[in-house]
Amino acid sequence: MGTELLAPLDLAFWHLESDAHPMHLGALAVFAPAPGPARGADAEAVLELLGTRAAAIPRLRMRVRDVLLPVGGAAWFVDKDFDVHRHIGRVRLTGAEARDGDGSGGFMAGATRLAGELMERPLERGLPPWQMYVIGGADGGPFAVLVKLHHALADGMRAVAIGAGIFDEIAAAGRPRAGAPARRVRTVPPRSWMPGPRQVAGLALGRIEDLGRAFGVGASMVRASRLDPRGTPALTASSSGTRRLATADLDLEAVRRIRRAAGGTANDVLLAVVAGALRRWMRERGEPLPDEDPRALVPVSRRRPGQAAASGNKLSAYLLGLPVGEPDPWRRLALVRTAMDRNKAAGPFRGAGAVAVLADQLPSLAHRFGAPLAGNAARMLFDVLVTSVPLPRSALSLGGCPLRAVYPMAPLARGQSLAVALSTYGGRVRVGLVADGKALPDLDRLASCADDEVAELLALLTTR
């Protein structure tokens, strides 16, 4: 793998980062002890296996360096001094957290607490931008692996494609079988780098279309921006640079039953659950409901089928008002479904939420010097990020230890105190809540409110 320029959107994520707002994605993968008399490998063995498999993933050997051309640009280069041990580490739980044998209660509380603290720290920019930590207590017990990948390296789907290489099943599938014939490499005749007349015309038309689309997005953003955004104080608090993580596990079958009754998609149901959870949480805090519904930025993948391994970020997004002012849970769901249907009808390349489409059209120099301004403008556009990250459906393991849950984590934009990420695995919807630690010290309660909201929707289903 040679030199590769960062795409404009990747460059935007690279320059949006600050000490208080690190721009890395994360995932907390929780493992049970291996079945049988061995009861799983010790933590050092897991750490060594993790390092071996991570070192075998070519993308994780790449780091970012500035380039002369394009002006203000940067590129991925293979790190010739790559040392996997600079990217992996072990963090021990102590006391009751370490003695929690079945992986519930104390272990999860300790793992999420440590993961939140580790998510505060920006990745070192002179190295390939990723880290992994093994979090555990006593050898042979449950453990977790925290994965941090810079957003310039990957969006959610790409992060899953990269990180999946650590699992037993994916690593085994990537190894050639003993005695298998070597793969034949098909040679392609060299082509001239000079485009022909038709190519020039096609490129020019495509560029005009892209610029027109970007202009439309920019105009929509101006119309949608709030010069004096007012909302829930906790969601608009100044950044403290701290991070807190909380998790929730929602019943996937319950979500599906609600979807079948209400129509729409499972994602519509989950967005409505987030809205209902926020409403419950605000009322429990004694806060007045905001006059204007908080806005969610809902990322949308622009990857086509089979593009999961393609490098770079391929994202757009929708803007969605979360109807926290509506007291009826089913009415909230109907409002979310109507709004999302309207977004989908317009498409992911239009509207104020398609900020990534606009970023793709800006030159490298604009990202380098305009990132702080763009970052500060985020709070004028949205209040909370709500993203869904698809995971493999098959059962996975690490060193023979079964994967029990994966909680995704999204970065916090400037001006935001909460990001919500959702993934489905093992018959449950796993929710990862990342928040500013000082703005939302009661984040665990918000996680519980999500479960309460699903329970109420399900209970109301029987009376409809």
Question: Would you mind describing this structure in some detail?
Answer:
The protein is an alpha+beta fold. It has 2 domains: 4-174, Chloramphenicol acetyltransferase-like domain (Chloramphenicol Acetyltransferase); 206-461, 2-Layer Sandwich (Chloramphenicol Acetyltransferase), CATH 3.30.559.30. The chain contains 13 helices and 15 strands. Strand 14 (418-425) and strand 15 form a beta hairpin. Helix 9 packs across helix 13 (443-461). The chain is globular. Residues 182-212 have low confidence and may be disordered.
Shape: globular
CATH top-level class of the largest domain? Alpha Beta
How large is the share of residues in beta strands?
Answer: 15-25%
User: Considering DSSP H and I runs of 4 or more, what fraction of the residues is helical?
Assistant: 25-40%
Number of separate strands? 15
Spell out the key features of this protein:
464 residues; alpha+beta; Chloramphenicol Acetyltransferase; 2 domains; 6-stranded mixed sheet; 13 helices; 37% helix
